[in-house]
Design goal:
Distance between the termini: 29 Å
Shape: globular
Mean pLDDT: 96
Largest sheet: 8 strands, parallel
Number of helices: 15
Helix content: 40-55%
Strand order of the largest sheet: 8-15-14-13-12-11-10-9
Order of helices and strands: EHEEEEHHEEHHEHEHHEHHEHEHEHEHEH
Number of strands: 15
């Protein structure tokens, strides 16, 4: 079975593009809008609608495979590729990418994904969002050509076994950390709530606000859980603010604070994402490894999660080798072709580091579907609920797709 045609259409994502640099420089909000002028190249507003490109591959038998090109919320920041706009990148996909794929035999997802990941146009590698979306379409196309589920294709090509249970879903609250936490409790979300503690003001000058929030979460779960068996993992993203409060390299002070959070959360397990932001990849690895060592030596069971400065497959391997954190977020759009995310999960698991297949609120239902199939095949320890920040929609997409996979696999086994 070969690829006969490539067709594109512009689309919207489940969230927005935000000019992170302008926001860090103090841009103020007015409702859901940001006031002021953007400072990152490509932005016309500080916050603007997220854009996507659907890539549709027409197979010889008339079936159509789909993938969505999309980028993270803070596009163009932190060394990422420029702002991803449909109008800019559709011609490239319809011409250069189409030429590379039309007529290709759909014999291997891995082979074709690597071809696109390594493709250069005018001496430049394709935008990460293009590689991300086209590789999703390739996975779907190979699955359709072989009459298999996408997860089965991944498992077959990487020598894996598709999970026979749900991968834990991590739901994110955004700034609405109280109302959205309630939604998660009502739906018995296994990992929650994100929290978005992205400033010292929110965390507290001595971490007191975060501590009170952890206490509130535990009480809320005790009061409203649907069953006594509901024991979610508390995973809170701190965006480096704990390091701002106690010092990025002051491992003993941070560990002492994390112990108070652990005691407040007990008996629930606690994960802290981005405890510090040390300003560079090497320093971030050093500090995360140092904090992990301190926590482990003191028998403090809070798990740290790497996020900042850990964006590519190369970064993830370095962090895993250095044991820089107990878990690593694998931000799928930032890795380009989705086969890189699969290989990142596999590498983390081999190194004994938690593999959190994350991504962005600024994705689509199509990209989420592909990610769920990859997670069910590669055995990620948890997967991000996406897109959007409303809890219900993203959780529905992830949960329902996994349940469909389990039902179909069970039916085939009968």
């Amino acid at each position: 079975m070969k690829i006969k045609q490539l067709i594109c259409s512009p689309g919207r994502t489940g969230f927005y593009f935000d000019d992170q640099k302008a926001i860090k420089q103090g841009a103020k909000t007015d409702g859901n809008m940001y006031l002021g002028e953007p400072v990152t190249e490509g932005f016309t507003k500080i916050r603007q609608a997220g854009e996507a490109i659907s890539v549709m591959l027409v197979l010889e038998n008339g079936l159509i495979a789909v993938g969505d090109c999309c980028a993270v919320q803070y596009s163009g920041a932190g060394g990422r590729d420029p702002l991803f706009l449909a109008e800019t990148f559709m011609p490239l996909i319809e011409n250069d990418v189409a030429k590379a794929l039309i007529g290709e035999e759909l014999d291997s997802f891995r082979r074709l994904a690597k071809k696109i990941d390594e493709l250069h146009v005018d001496g430049k590698r394709l935008h990460t969002a293009v590689r991300y979306g086209v590789s999703q379409a390739i996975l779907d196309a190979v699955a359709k050509a072989k009459g298999k589920l996408m997860c089965d294709v991944v498992a077959e090509e990487y020598g894996l076994k598709v999970s026979d249970k749900l991968v834990p879903i991590f739901s994110q609250s955004g700034d609405d950390r109280y109302n959205n936490a309630d939604k998660m409790i009502m739906k018995s979300v296994p990992v929650m709530p994100h929290g978005l503690f992205n400033s010292v003001e929110k965390t507290g000058e001595s971490g007191e606000n975060l501590l009170e929030y952890v206490k509130w979460l535990k009480k809320r779960i005790e009061d409203f859980a649907l069953s006594e068996d509901y024991r979610p993992i508390l995973h809170i993203d701190c965006y480096g603010t704990i390091g701002q409060v106690f010092g990025e390299s002051n491992y003993k002070a941070m560990a002492a604070y994390l112990k108070t959070l652990e005691e407040a959360a007990a008996p629930l397990k606690l994960r802290i994402e981005g405890p510090m932001d040390s300003g560079s990849r090497e320093k971030q690895m050093q500090d995360l490894a140092g904090l992990r060592k301190e926590l482990d030596e003191q028998n403090i069971h809070v798990e740290t999660v790497a996020d900042e400065w850990c964006n590519t497959l190369e970064d993830i391997k370095l962090f895993a080798d250095a044991k820089a954190g107990h878990m690593i977020q694998i931000k799928t759009p930032d890795l380009g072709s989705i086969h890189n995310s699969i290989e990142a999960v596999i590498y983390c698991k081999e190194k004994g580091v938690g593999a959190y297949q994350g991504g962005s609120c600024n994705e689509t239902n199509i990209s989420v579907k592909a990610c769920i199939h990859c997670a069910m095949a590669d055995g990620a320890d948890q997967v991000l609920s996406k897109p959007g920040m409303g809890v219900d929609e993203g959780y529905m997409l992830c949960y329902n797709e996994m349940e469909r996979i389990l039902a179909l696999k069970k039916a085939k086994a009968v």
